[in-house]
Every structure is written in C-alpha cells, then in structure tokens.
Amino acid sequence: MITAIVLINAEVDKIPEVAQQIADLEGVSEVYSVTGDCDLIALVRVREHDEMASVIADRLNKVPGILRTQTHIAFRAYSRHDLEAAFSLGIDD
N or C: which end of the chain has fewer CB within 10 A? Predict the structure, then answer.
C-alpha cells in the first residue's frame, strides 16, 4: 500500500465543500480540516504508483476551490502499536 499525505490550500469560503468532494474521491481514505499553513490534509492510499498520479494529479487537483496542493509520499508507517513494540523490554505482565 502506498500512502500520500496531501496538504491543501482552498478558498476559505469553500473549505467544507472542497473537503467533501475530496473525501468522495476513490483512493482518498480521510480528509481533515486543520489549522496552520494549510486548510485541509488528505490521506491517499493506493496499491500502485500509477494510481497515485490518477488520484492526485487527475482528480484531486481538479476539485474546484483548491488553490494549491503539496504532496508527501510516505516511506514507512509507524503506529502506537509499532512504537510500543519497539520500546518493549520483553517483560511479560
């Protein structure tokens, strides 16, 4: 599975509509409205790199109201479970 984190700047008065349109795209697993340098963050999860281009370049970037996007491809995922296992001392409770 290939994951991309897409930072999105949108027209302020259209943020809810833009978020919903992005969330409805196949390949987009989640969309968050956030504070900071961007307005929305979308998580895109696909099986192959070619699909990533299709989701982001061909569909997501064409949603009306989007001003700018910045895409980050994830190398490795860490979860709370993974981190707890990494720091485990091997002592059973």
Answer: C
Q: What is the pLDDT of residues 25-69, one digit of tens each?
A: 999 999 999 999 999 999 999 999 999 999 999 999 999 999 999
In one-letter notation, the amino acid at residue 61 is N
> What SS3 class is residue 44?
strand
- The pLDDT of residue 27 is 97
Which residues touch 56 (CB under 8 Å, ≥6 apart)?
4, 6, 44, 69, 71
The phi and psi torsions of 45 (rounded to 5 degrees) equal -130, 120
Q: Is the overall model pTM greater than 0.90, yes or no?
A: no
Interatomic CA distance for residues 73 and 81, integer angstroms: 22
Q: If we measure between CA atoms, which residue out of 41, 34, 74 comes closest to residue 60?
A: 41
For residue 23 the two structure tokens come to: 């969330």
- How many C-beta atoms lie closer than 10 Å to residue 54's C-beta? 15
